[in-house]
């Protein structure tokens, strides 16, 4: 059975939980991370030298980095359902996953820590405003893509890209800031909310 190391409140752990839900994969999960078992111990660092969650253990195969984990799960167990084998279709999905992990994530870091985590070290008004503006601009890029597809990130069908991006939209909507009017993003969020896995691991009250 798959083993997932990481607390269920982590957005990156939730990617893996949602992917398992979509693929019908049973798993065991252990609480690791802030507030639970420490990730800076020798045993954990032997699994992930970055001391981050999640870590996936599939027998003797160990993998870290949430997007890499869900790619692996879809490729190993998905029979092409979430991640096609065809190179161009697969590349399009992975393009948006990589964009989420780099461009989109970097845009919201300061704002999220300031507004949701309320870290006193993140109190620079100019830096906060810049982060909110960048976050809004990046969600606007997603808005344009969703307005083009009319459904999911890469087309008419739900794909692996919708897991990290769906969680990212949930985080944006749950952060207390002035939200731009993005009707395609709103419709996308409602569409994802028809999926039980998203309700369990995405739209579940956690940012």
Automatic annotation (TrEMBL):
Gene3D superfamilies: 1.20.1050.10, Glutaredoxin. It holds the Pfam family GST_N_2. It comes from Collimonas arenae. It comes from the Bacteria. The keyword Transferase applies. The keyword Transferase applies. GO terms for molecular function: transferase activity. InterPro entries: Glutathione-S-Trfase_C-like (IPR010987), Glutathione-S-Trfase_C_sf (IPR036282), Glutathione_S-Trfase (IPR040079), Glutathione_S-Trfase_N (IPR004045), GST_C (IPR004046), Thioredoxin-like_sf (IPR036249). Residues 86-207 form the GST C-terminal domain. This is Putative glutathione S-transferase-like protein. Keywords: Transferase. Residues 1-81 form the GST N-terminal domain.
